[in-house]
Amino acid sequence: MPKVKIDGFEVEVPEGTTILQAARQIGGDIVPPAMCYYSTLKGSGGKCRTCLVKVTKASEKDPRPLPKLVASCQQVVMDGMEVANISSEEVLNARRGVVEFLLVNHPLDCPICDQAGECQLQDLAFEHGLASTRYEFERRTFEQIDIGPYIKLHMTRCILCYRCVHVANQLTDERVHGVIHRGDHAEISTYIEKAIENDFSGNVIDVCPVGALTDRTFRFKSRVWFLNPMYAHRNCDKCSGKAVVWMYGHEIYRVTAREDAYGEVHEFICNTCRFDKKDAADWTIEGPAHIDRHSVISQNHYEDEAKVVR
C-alpha cells in the first residue's frame, strides 16, 4: 500500500485513496477543510477548492513537485508522496482567496440564519476570512422560496457546492431540482415549478454546508446551542430510524440524521422520522450526542462520557 506524508505525518493507505481521505486518517489540524466533498455522495468534490494543498513530492519514482496546488479531495495518493497543508503559506494564502470568493455574494445574516452555530462557512471565515470585503459591486440577491412543504430555499446564501443535487440523485428515482444557468447566473432551482416531495427530501437540509436549505418546521424556533442533541432511534420501515433529536426539556424541536466528525451523514433518514415524529414517546432516547468542544453548541452542554454513543 502507498505511503504518504502530510505536514510531516506519514500514513499508509489503500490504493485509490485521495489526499483528503489520507489526512482524515491522521486527523487533527492537518485535515483540509471541505465545503463540497462528501464521502457518502458519489461525484461530490472538486468544486469549492477550499481543500487545496501543495504536493512537494509527487512520488518515490518521480520526486518532482506538482506545478500547481491541487484539490486534495480529487488527487489520488502515490507511494512516497509528500504534501504540505497548513505548513505551506502558499496553501493558506490560496485558501484565504477561496474563502473571499465564497463570501462575495454570501450575505452577512448569521444573526438570523438557522444554520448559525453549525455553519462550515462560518468556521472557514473565522479561520481564513478577511475583516472586511474588497468587493465593490452589488451582490446578487434572490427571493426566498419554498421548494416543497418542508424546505425553504435561500439562494442568496448558496455557494453552489452541489451536495443537495448529489444526495437527490443518490436517494431518489426522480430528481426535480438542480443547478440551472451558468457562471455567475447559476442557481439552485426546481424544474418548472415542481416541488421536492419525495420521502428522503429532508436530507438536502443536512448536507447543505450553509443556510441555503433550511427546515421550515424548525425555522426561528430556537438557536441550536439552546437545545440538547440526543441520539435516538425508532423502528422505521423506510430508513434505519437512527437520528439525533434536538430537545428543549422534554420537547423535540427538530430531528436530524447522525453525522460523523466531519459533518457527514452515513445513514440518511426519511421524512417521516425527520418531520412527523416530534413526540418524545416516538423515540427511544439513547443518550447525549457527542459535540466537538470547539463548536458553539458545546457551550453549557454536558455529557456523561460513559453513556455517549460514538
Structure description:
With 310 residues, the protein is α+β, with helices and mostly antiparallel strands. It folds into three domains: 3-101, Roll (Ubiquitin-like (UB roll)); 110-215, Alpha-Beta Plaits (2-Layer Sandwich), CATH 3.30.70; 224-298, no CATH class. It is built from six helices and 14 strands. The chain has helices spanning 19-26, 89-102, 120-128, 163-171, 203-207, 271-276, and strands at residues 3-6, 9-12, 52-57, 70-71, 81-84, 145-146, 151-153, 177-180, 187-190, 213-215, 228-233, 242-248, 251-256, 284-288. The strands form four sheets. The protein has a five-stranded mixed β-sheet, with helices on both faces. The chain has a four-stranded antiparallel β-sheet with strand order 13-12-11-14. A three-stranded antiparallel β-sheet has the order 6-7-10, with no helix packed on it. Strand 6 (145-146) and strand 7 (151-153) form a beta hairpin.
